[in-house]
Amino acid sequence: MLKLNRKGQTAIETLFILAIIMTGIAMVLSSYLNENRDVSVVTYIRASASHACDYLNMGVQTSESPYSLLNNDLASLNGTNYQFRVMSIGLNETSTAMNISVSISTPFVLNTSMVSSLENSIKLFIVEDVSRNTNMGKNGTNLVYSGKIVRLNVSVVKG
Amino acid sequence: MRKAQVSLDLLFAILLILLTLVNLTYLATSETAHSEMFSTISEVKTFSISLRDHITKVYAVGEGFKKKEVFPFNLESGESIRIHLNSSSNSIIINATIDGKSYTITQRSDVPLKDSNVTLTNSKREFWVSTEISGGMLYVKVEP
């Protein structure tokens, strides 16, 4: 009789402990996944942006997509190495969208039309490259990741 | 009972670590395509720079000097490199077709060039850089 009673108590204790563990896991897991997703998105975009910079610095045009998107700008850079590099990446997240700003710097001065054309084609390149090589999708001109729209803002600055 | 609790915690911890690892592996595999292309780009770039240097050297040595050039990388059948010297823009234009993709690079030359072309294939990877005098001026050209 005593033995049976003890057994019942242990089972209830275990249930409580299990419940606490489960709640803890549920709390940790969602924020962990969220963080993991943000880090992935930023890493993908950073890698892609630095590929675009490497391609522009190298000065060799290729027919391979998506690199061909940068060929017009590469031609107007006229064989000069502008030493582009990814300076910073900013992430601003809301409940429905992620706003990512990529800042690319060059020590040389570029004219305004060239800068806006570069910004535009680097953005197109990143969207095309990331949607093709990773598990992020494309919705028209924007990237989509697990139901959130990723808005890219590329800026080329002297610095 | 204690044993089972520990293993449940441990399983979830392993799950989270695995998730990160899978993510990293995924990123690494997607990088391989890029690296392969950048390796070809670097080959073409290296070749274009050394060719430009050799053209300048041939010009510096002067009339009657010829230098034999060999494309330093392997070419498969169907792959080709076309070298074009353009006298009007004074530039060296290299068009490469490697693995079905085309690569183009333009290098500006400091010395006067004569319009000339040469095409390299897997059976013919060598060509000559030579000079020619026309109108009292020295020009550099490429010839098969």
How would you characterize the overall build of this protein?
The complex is a heterodimer of chains A (159) and B (144). Chain A is of the alpha+beta class. Chain A has one domain (2-158). Chain A has helices spanning 2-58, 71-76, 112-133, and strands at 61-62, 85-93, 97-106, 137-139, 142-145, 148-158. Chain A has a 5-stranded mixed beta sheet. In chain A, α1 crosses α3 (112-133). The longest helix of chain A has 57 residues, at 2-58. Chain A starts with a helix and ends with a strand. The relative contact order of chain A is 0.15. Helix content of chain B is 42%, strand content 33%. Chain B has a 4-stranded antiparallel beta sheet, with helices on one face. A 3-stranded antiparallel beta sheet of chain B has the order 1-6-7, covered by helices on one side. Chain B has 144 residues and is α+β, with helices and mostly antiparallel strands. Chain B is elongated, with a radius of gyration of 26 Å. Chain B contains 1 helix and 7 strands. The A-B interface holds A 10, 14, 17-18, 21, 25, 28-29, 32-33, 36, 40, 43-44, 47, 51, 54-55, 58-64, 67, 79, 133-135 and B 1, 5, 8-9, 12, 16, 19-20, 23, 26-27, 30-31, 33-34, 37-38, 41-42, 44-45, 48, 101-108.
Task: Please supply descriptive tags for the structure shown above.
heterodimer; A: 159 residues; alpha+beta; 5-stranded mixed sheet; 3 helices; 6 strands; 25% strand; B: alpha+beta; 4-stranded antiparallel sheet; 3-stranded antiparallel sheet; elongated
The interface involving the most residues is between: A-B, 30 and 30 residues
Q: What is the strand arrangement across the widest sheet of chain A?
A: 2-3-6-5-4
Oligomer: heterodimer
Describe the main β-sheet of chain A briefly.
Answer: 5 strands, mixed
